[in-house]
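lol forgot to send this yesterday, sorry. struct tokens for the thing we talked abt
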């Protein structure tokens, strides 16, 4: 853990175009605070490719994201793929609706533009664990796989979520946009009408967003077919879950939800909610593999899939985030 040296600070400030659109005043305040405390280069990208070029040419500048969780995830993923993430501290000034900055809040970043910008200038770098999947995707907070089946009020329309920055076959054609502030999805057997809880706020549409679909369409995508001709169980899906090679549950035991988060000690915390048990099956492992009929999952604030198999590996101290002292 080390504090940035104010005398040597040089920042690359990447301002998410969504943040400029939904809350230009907070963006201006954060930018002015950062300019007052460090040498800054401002990047105003209009697309993800421009972010990648700016990061590649940043020199010794520390990257600072002014934007929501998706903008942060995009920058982190680019640095990971450049094999620079573990060595480059990342900072963020959250701007956007509460549901769109829930990850930053969970990580301990202040939500006010002044407090967050001052944390960038005066804070400390803290190493944090993360999860990496076998397609090169990065998970900073956690992920969950919902069970199938339609909840009450299935006809409600909602904004669709964009494809995320992790490079996998993600939302693509749509899906509701945000998780709840605590980063948790619905409980066992209670997939909502939108397929996910919460909403992204009016006008909250990242630059890589495809055309929106209704929430009913998103739910249809989340609901996979029954495995091997077995009868479907409402609110459930059939998955094979393994933790460090140990079988946790198989296709013959319907599950209502699977969740995975980075835990202390460089391990992943796994919880599998099954249809026939009152308590989840819990395990800690370095590597977790989920397979079965095509399934979708929500990693941080991004809907991903469909995939038939995905492996997540815990990466201890895989990145560094600047946080208040």
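and heres what i got for the seq, position by position
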């Amino acid at each position: 853990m080390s504090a940035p040296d104010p005398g040597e600070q040089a920042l690359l400030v990447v301002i998410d175009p969504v943040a400029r659109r939904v809350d230009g005043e907070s963006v201006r305040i954060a930018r002015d605070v950062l300019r007052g405390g460090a040498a800054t280069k401002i990047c105003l990208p209009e697309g993800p490719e421009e972010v990648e070029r700016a990061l590649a040419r940043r020199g010794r500048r520390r990257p600072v994201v002014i934007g929501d969780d998706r903008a942060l995830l995009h920058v982190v993923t680019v640095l990971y793929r450049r094999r620079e993430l573990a060595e480059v501290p990342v900072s963020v000034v959250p701007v956007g609706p509460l549901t769109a900055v829930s990850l930053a809040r969970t990580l301990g970043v202040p939500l006010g533009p002044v407090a967050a910008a001052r944390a960038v200038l005066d804070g400390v770098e803290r190493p944090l664990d993360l999860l990496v999947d076998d397609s090169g995707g990065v998970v900073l907070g956690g992920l969950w796989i919902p069970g199938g089946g339609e909840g009450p009020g299935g006809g409600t329309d909602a904004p669709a979520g964009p494809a995320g920055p992790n490079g996998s076959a993600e939302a693509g054609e749509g899906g509701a946009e945000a998780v709840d502030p605590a980063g948790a999805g619905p409980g066992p057997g209670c997939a909502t009408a939108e397929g996910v809880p919460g909403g992204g706020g009016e006008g909250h549409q990242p630059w890589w967003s495809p055309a929106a679909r209704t929430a009913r369409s998103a739910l249809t995508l989340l609901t996979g077919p029954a495995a091997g001709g077995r009868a479907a169980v409402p609110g459930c899906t059939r998955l094979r879950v393994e933790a460090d090679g140990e079988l946790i549950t198989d296709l013959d035991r319907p599950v209502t939800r699977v969740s995975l988060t980075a835990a202390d000690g460089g391990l992943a915390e796994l919880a599998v909610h099954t249809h026939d048990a009152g308590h989840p099956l819990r395990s800690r492992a370095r590597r977790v593999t989920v397979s079965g009929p095509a399934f979708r999952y929500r990693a941080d604030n991004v809907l991903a899939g469909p995939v038939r198999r995905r492996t997540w590996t815990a990466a201890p101290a895989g990145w560094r985030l600047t946080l208040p002292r």
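Helices lie at 17-22, 24-37, 48-56, 69-81, 102-107, 113-122, 215-222. anyway ping me if u want another try
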